[in-house]
Specification:
By secondary structure, the protein is of the alpha/beta class. The chain has 14 helices and six strands. A six-stranded parallel beta sheet has the order 3-2-4-1-5-6, sandwiched between helices. It is globular, with a radius of gyration of 20 Å.
């Protein structure tokens, strides 16, 4: 990670635009850390950077995986490390940009070796209610239970499955991996909440003006991970006639705002990147500041 700089923060902050201009300024390449932008298709729904942004610098891990493929933090980590090593081999700096906290932590802290899913055990867990899964996870590994989104059945199931397979709390494995984390440097960018929420609302409205309904209508089969995209289920309900357009837009805006709030909390607690409030800077000022800090902390590729 010596020649790598991170730009992280919540959705709709403006990370992609800033990172592209920083990359052009310092001659770097970008590695995207977004759990859904990595998928090919659904560009509007996942708010992929548009062509004008992508043209400013080489981008990696944007639209590279089919919607039918399952993704995980470990699969992403391997792909990202491969991309970073290739960038460095060209004597270029790498800028890691995104808001998917677990994927970012996979790069900065590594991942503990965890077992593959067991079909027979998974079948038993799938037969349990979400309340039963939560209760058992809290009993076996209270630390992991406190950090897991207990409304997300897939995550609760996987955490409990790992506990049962390895015979000890998942948290002990993760703490062991964290003790071998690599030093990393970067900026945590954010905006004042009122401004951020306004940007989110406007972006969702822009998605619908751009044709996101037809985009979702044309999408074929999806993996379990791809189907977790914010707004997908709401638009599918709109297409089935069980939801009105105004209700659909409002619910996606609300879900995205809640996601941004969780991201803010996560980055404040989980990273030591330098915080930068973009509400007090122009775009050019932010690009200049981050470019200078990146070069001072990461150096040039020729160092």
């Amino acid at each position: 990670m010596r020649h790598t700089f991170f730009i992280v923060g919540p959705t709709a902050t403006g990370k992609s635009e800033i990172a592209a201009d920083v990359a052009r300024e310092v001659g770097a390449e970008i590695v995207s850390v977004d759990a859904f932008q990595i998928y090919r298709g659904l560009d509007l729904l996942t708010a992929k950077p548009d062509g004008s942004i992508l043209a400013k610098a080489p981008h990696h891990l944007v639209g590279t995986v089919p919607l039918t493929e399952e993704m995980s933090a470990e699969k992403f980590r391997r792909a990202a490390i491969c991309a970073i090593e290739a960038i460095n081999s060209r004597r270029k700096l790498a800028i890691v940009v995104g808001g998917s906290g677990l994927y970012i932590k996979a790069l900065t802290h590594g991942l503990a070796p965890l077992p593959e899913s067991d079909p027979k055990l998974r079948e038993k867990l799938e037969a349990m209610s979400l309340d039963e899964l939560r209760s058992q996870l809290a009993e076996l590994d209270p630390k992991t239970a406190r950090k897991t989104d207990l409304k997300n059945r897939r995550r609760v199931t996987r955490a409990l499955e790992i506990c049962l397979l390895i015979g000890k709390p998942v948290s002990t494995q993760r703490e062991r991996a964290a003790s071998h984390s690599e030093a990393s440097t970067g900026a945590f960018v954010f905006r004042d909440r009122e401004e951020l929420y306004k940007r989110i609302n406007q972006r969702v409205e822009g998605m619908f003006e751009g044709g996101v309904i037809e985009e979702v209508r044309a999408a074929a089969g999806m993996s379990a991970t791809a189907s977790q995209m914010i707004g997908l289920s709401e638009i599918q309900e709109l297409l089935s006639g069980t939801k009105e357009l105004t209700q659909c837009i409002a619910q996606i805006q609300q879900a995205t705002r809640r996601y941004a709030k969780r991201q803010l909390t996560w980055f404040r607690r989980q990273t030591n990147f330098f915080p930068l409030n973009l509400s007090f800077l122009t775009h050019n000022e932010a690009v200049k500041w981050i470019s200078l800090r990146m070069l001072s902390e990461v150096g040039t590729r020729d160092d």
